[in-house]
Amino acid sequence: MILMLLLTQAFLSALSEEPPPPPQHVHVKKWLLTWTPPTAETDLTYTVQSSFHGGKWTDVPICVHMASTSCDVALTAAENEHGCVMLRVQAERRGLKSTPVQACSSQSDSCTPEVSLSARPGFLTIHLSRNHSLAQNHAAHTVYRVHYSREGDTTQLSEDSSSSLTLPQLEPGQRYCAQVEYILHRWSVGPPSCSLCELVPHSGTEVNPGVIVGVCIVLFLLMSGTAYVFIFQQRRIKQWLRPPYAIPEDFYCQRHFPISTYSLTEEHLDVITVVIPVERRE
Length: 282
Known about the structure:
- The chain has helices at residues 2-16, 74-78, 133-138, 209-232, 234-241, 251-254, 278-281, and strands at residues 24-29, 32-36, 45-51, 58-59, 70-72, 86-93, 96-97, 101-102, 116-120, 123-127, 142-150, 157-161, 165-167, 175-184, 187-188, 196-199.
- The chain is α+β, with helices and mostly antiparallel strands.
């Protein structure tokens, strides 16, 4: 009787027990996969799974029910013709498995795109390059798949592009995050880039319409007053501009003009000896 009670209690406890939380910060760099334990529990084990070309996920033989938080998957990646493989990790406790978490790569290479973000009011640009080995070998069969969402949202949107992509009509003052992966013949090739986030800025300081109207009225009054003064008050303006100076009445009396010492040069003239009136001559 006691044994049946203990078994029943153990069974009910197992049914009420929740799966462990998923691993955190799952990254791969040079095919060394690392992650962080979700909690401080010591009875967790981890299993790494791989997938080629978006196919079925299978366990990596050397990374099953591990107590450590890292695994070298270089041999698994080498099995693919492109040397790329997608990876994910899940935690396990007493037969209960967590939600698997896909690994990302913060290092760009032939399997993971190089990504950078820039933002302007209402827009976010994901900068990508066509200069990578998959594009060179497979041309238009290779594209980027961009996954993006507002920071904190669980729903992601996706869009395929062959080059840099600009996302329009985004909410200013919000942070948006993006991940990018290579797609070859409509299948994922390798680990996606780790999520990058950027703040979409506001368009600038908003101006009250009343302030704009007030400024326009003031400018109109100033221009009207200036035009009136220059058109109808020209004489008064000239009087204002005339310097305050008058010639003294005794100016010419007091002023000593220099006496000219100029003399004509003497000329040589012919002497007239006889003068005959015109009438007498006739």
